């Protein structure tokens, strides 16, 4: 049983579901954590992900409320289907709920993107990933850094360095993304605009943070394109700041875009400004300078290898970082060889056969 619930998980499931189904039966469950069709149905359709076998439909709510709803839905589903193993991705509310469900149901848990650490326990994502790792029997690490992080916590059994399934997806959909309309559809010149994404609670859940975000957007040195997450738009509207954001010169606020369109825009951008963990890594994969509106990151190798600059929501630091950001002439392949999905599927098949 595979459990997904948000955009990055849909992307990761695209190559991994194909690999899993070559080895056995996959029951795909969509929690409904991203309930907006702009962020859910769109990704399933364009990436060719199999329709979910079960949709829990948890919808809007607080993280605790969503966890409770997922736990309730999974309890009956696990009892009815008796899966050999539950697979979860990343560090979301859906991931944590799946980990707890597996532990309480007595079935093995496998975690894709195990071992990532920002070392900031105030981050909900850090809480989710640490708890999930310590409940997992199979831990699929994207990088050697992740393996080392787990070892420092005493977790060595069931740990496998497999590479990153996001690289698998990037390679799988490269041609399709290259054929999307891209920057020209927004009147922008490739290479001369900044792509912006913002959605995390730290940047959107208080009026002060939103005001800082508007200062960041105002300070950007050049035209910017900002596909606005529905959650972020709702927060701006509730704070009475949507109109002000819409009037910032040279910043286009547009509806969310799918994975293929986003990838095309990312590859054409001069730089990306984001608070997303996944986008930091995607920018690195495509060799695009990244400026991250956070003080910590779980993708530490993007910083140490010169692809990513951490600025927080400091407008002056962001403007300077964008103006000076560059990509190193040479860098190691940080995320494997594009065959992580096949390795994960083979390891799961071996594990379930043995149990």
In short:
The protein is an alpha/beta fold and 355 residues long. 47% of the residues lie in helices and 13% in strands.
Number of strands: 13
Query: What is the top-level CATH class of the largest domain?
Result: Alpha Beta
Termini separation: 16 Å
- Overall pLDDT confidence: 94
N to C succession of SSEs: EHEHEHEHEHEHEHHEHHEHHEHEHEHEHH
Report on this structure:
By secondary structure, the chain is α/β, with parallel strands linked by helices. The chain has two domains: 2-164 and 336-354, Glycogen Phosphorylase B (Rossmann fold, 3-Layer(aba) Sandwich); 175-324, Glycogen Phosphorylase B (Rossmann fold), CATH 3.40.50.2000. It contains 17 helices and 13 strands. The strands form three sheets. A six-stranded parallel sheet has the order 10-9-8-11-12-13, with helices on both faces. Strands 4-5-6-7 form a four-stranded parallel sheet, with helices on one face. A three-stranded parallel sheet has the order 1-2-3.
Key traits:
single chain, 2 domains, Rossmann fold, 355 residues, alpha/beta, 47% helix, four-stranded parallel beta sheet, six-stranded parallel beta sheet
């Amino acid at each position: 049983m595979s459990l997904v619930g948000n955009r990055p998980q849909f992307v990761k499931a695209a190559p991994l579901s194909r690999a899993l189904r070559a080895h056995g039966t996959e029951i795909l469950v969509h929690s409904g954590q991203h309930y907006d069709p702009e962020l859910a149905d769109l990704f399933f359709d364009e990436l060719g992900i199999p329709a979910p076998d079960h949709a829990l439909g948890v919808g809007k709510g607080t993280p605790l409320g969503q966890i409770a709803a997922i736990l309730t839905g999974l309890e009956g589903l696990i009892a009815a289907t008796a899966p050999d193993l539950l697979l979860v991705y990343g560090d979301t509310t859906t991931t944590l709920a799946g980990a707890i469900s597996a532990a309480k149901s007595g079935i093995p848990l496998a975690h894709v993107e195990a071992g990532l650490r920002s070392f900031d326990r105030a981050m909900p994502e850090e809480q989710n990933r640490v708890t999930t790792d310590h409940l997992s029997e199979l831990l699929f690490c994207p990088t050697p850094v992740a393996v080392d992080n787990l070892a420092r916590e005493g977790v060595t059994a069931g740990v496998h360095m497999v590479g990153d399934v996001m690289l698998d997806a990037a390679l799988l959909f490269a041609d399709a993304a290259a054929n999307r309309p891209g920057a020209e559809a927004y009147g922008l010149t490739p290479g001369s605009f900044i792509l912006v994404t913002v959605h995390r609670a730290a940047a959107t859940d208080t009026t002060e943070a939103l005001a800082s975000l508007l200062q960041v957007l105002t300070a950007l040195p050049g035209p910017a394109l900002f596909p606005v997450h529905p959650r972020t738009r709702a927060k701006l509207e509730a704070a009475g700041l949507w109109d002000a954001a819409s009037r910032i010169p040279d910043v286009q606020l547009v509806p969310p875009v799918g994975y293929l369109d986003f990838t095309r825009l990312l590859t054409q951008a001069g730089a990306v400004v984001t608070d997303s963990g996944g986008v930091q890594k995607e920018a690195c994969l495509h060799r695009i300078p990244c400026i991250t509106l956070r003080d910590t990151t779980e993708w530490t190798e993007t910083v140490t290898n010169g692809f990513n600059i951490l600025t927080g929501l400091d407008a002056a630091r962001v403007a300077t970082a964008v103006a000076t950001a560059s990509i190193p002439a040479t860098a190691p392949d940080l995320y494997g060889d594009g065959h992580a999905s096949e390795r994960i599927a083979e390891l799961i098949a071996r594990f379930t056969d043995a149990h």
